[in-house]
TrEMBL record:
Belongs to the Glu/Leu/Phe/Val dehydrogenases family. The keyword Oxidoreductase applies. The gene is gdhA. InterPro entries: Aminoacid_DH-like_N_sf, Glu/Leu/Phe/Val/Trp_DH, Glu/Leu/Phe/Val/Trp_DH_C, Glu/Leu/Phe/Val/Trp_DH_dimer, Glu/Leu/Phe/Val_DH_AS, Glu_DH, NAD(P)-bd_dom_sf, NAD_bind_Glu_DH. Residues 195-427 form the Glutamate/phenylalanine/leucine/valine/L-tryptophan dehydrogenase C-terminal domain. Keywords: Oxidoreductase. Transmembrane segments: none annotated. The keyword Oxidoreductase applies. This is Glutamate dehydrogenase. PROSITE patterns: GLFV_DEHYDROGENASE. It comes from Hymenobacter glacieicola.
Length: 429
């Protein structure tokens, strides 16, 4: 690392709400702190490859619809690329590029031997039948058969996809290579090579890094209140595991709205409710529906966990945030334009590439188990994942102290430094 201690705030940009711009603006600040040479900068800044495919799918009404899908491999310097596949009507290439780069930095922060990638298909899975989604998933897998592979590029679930889609992907890929290939994808169902502890891994990592941050800030979990945005895989597990640590979850939300209970929400009850209501909280009576769901972000709580979508914390609402600590379960929930405001207010942020890396860590364990042909116990998974999360947190925290920079930039510095050093050793370009 270059011995500079100068920290320059990323300049607010008009287009900072584009996640790719947000990612690049932090990347630029971190590379400046590292004093990265132009050659390495140029190698790291752009994705290795971007694949756009058009997938014809016979819909249930007999008509063929063509879906656009992407896979962006950002970087493979540390190892085969790793990253989820998102099914959503708002997927766009810049978003996938940002998410792919975040995967590179995330894997480097937690020191696992993967590069970064991400995939997405523009579709609305909530309006499609299981058969249509299966045909779409198999079509996408076939289109990507030369990209995916246990030693090349290993997909996983993201928003709109889960174990079911990963099972279809594994099956379709296995057919193309003529052999069962469980290590081609992670996040599979437990019965077909999935790992114990994977479902809750991201939320657990959010809890572990929140506890580590609270310790640094002298916050007692039992005296801490929290708001969690998003009540899907990450948000509901983070809320549950934080509440088990004594944190009072006063507010939760999903697409149906935000729900507030001054005395704390019973998270097990809320999870049970959403499980029998198509995964949604509509009509949940254990808390009061707020007039404006966005008020969750600026509510009177000590800890804020955005665990839904990108760019929810912006220059427009950052001034009003009351929380002392933000732990980012989602990828890219804070636009770069909000960074200077948050830093000015002295709020500690455990950034996405650190806080939500428990998911990819246990995905890595799943891949290792598939290759070993040996299943680990849940205790082994949890103990190893918690250790990795705590070590990564301490490394990022120490870097933020050393350079007097916010945790977010420190995480980029740790990640980019590791990838850049590996690039120097590998060379040969
Ligand atoms: P999910 O589909 O299981 O859940 C998303 C939740 O967010 C749902 O409850 C949905 O209703 C809610 N939501 C959507 N838009 C919202 C809005 N505008 N306001 C409030 N709530 C909203 O998805 P997930 O797997 O929990 O992923 C959430 C985020 O975490 C994404 O950014 C994803 O990339 C990131 N992430 C997920 C994992 C993982 O292992 N699942 C790992 C790392 C990062």
């Amino acid at each position: 690392m270059a011995a500079t201690t100068v920290y320059k705030e990323p300049a607010p940009r008009v287009d900072a709400e584009n996640p790719l711009e947000s990612m690049m603006s932090r990347f630029n600040v971190a590379t400046e702190i590292l004093g990265l040479d132009d050659e390495t900068y140029n190698v790291l800044k752009a994705p290795d490859k971007q694949i756009i495919v058009h997938i014809p799918v016979t819909m249930d009404n007999g008509k063929v619809r063509v879906f656009e899908g992407y896979r962006v491999v950002h970087n493979t310097i540390l190892g085969p690329s790793k990253g989820g596949i998102r099914y959503d009507k708002n997927v766009h290439l810049d978003e996938v590029k940002a998410l792919a780069a975040w995967m590179t930095w995330k894997c480097a922060v937690v020191d696992i031997p993967y590069g970064g990638a991400k995939g997405g298909i523009i579709c609305d899975p909530t309006t499609m039948s299981a058969g249509e989604i299966e045909r779409l998933t198999r079509g996408y897998t076939l289109a990507m058969k030369d990209v995916f592979g246990p030693d090349r590029d290993i997909p996983a679930p993201d928003m709109g996809t889960g174990p079911r889609e990963m099972a279809w992907l594994m099956d379709e890929f296995s057919k193309t290579v003529g052999a069962t290939s469980p290590a081609v994808v992670t996040g599979k169902p437990l019965v077909m090579g999935g790992s114990l502890g994977r479902t809750e891994a991201t939320g657990r990592g959010v809890m572990v890094s929140a506890l580590a941050a609270m310790k640094k800030l002298g916050m007692d979990p039992k005296q801490t209140s929290a708001a969690v945005q998003g009540f899907g895989n990450v948000g509901s597990w983070a809320a549950k595991l934080l509440s088990e640590q004594g944190v009072k979850i006063k507010c939760i939300s999903d697409v149906s709205g935000a729900y507030w209970n001054e005395n704390g929400i019973n998270i097990d009850e809320a999870v049970a409710y959403k499980n029998v209501h198509k995964g949604r909280l509509d009509g949940y009576t254990g808390a009061t529906l707020m007039d404006n769901a966005d008020d969750l972000l600026t509510s009177e709580v000590d800890l804020l966990v955005p665990a839904a979508v990108e760019d929810v914390i912006t220059e427009h609402n950052a001034h009003d945030i009351k929380a002392k600590l933000i732990v980012e379960g989602a990828n890219g929930p804070t636009a770069a334009s909000a960074d200077p405001i948050i830093n000015e207010k002295g709020i500690m942020v455990v950034p996405d590439i650190l806080a939500n890396s428990g998911g990819v860590t246990v995905s890595y364990f799943e891949w290792v188990q598939n290759r070993q042909g040996f299943k680990w116990s849940e205790d082994m998974v949890t103990e190893r994942a918690d250790r990795i999360m705590n070590e990564a947190f301490e490394k990022v925290y120490a870097t933020s102290q050393k350079y007097n920079i916010p945790m977010r930039i420190a995480a980029y510095v740790v990640a980019i430094d590791k990838v850049a050093q590996t690039y120097k050793f590998r060379g040969g370009f």
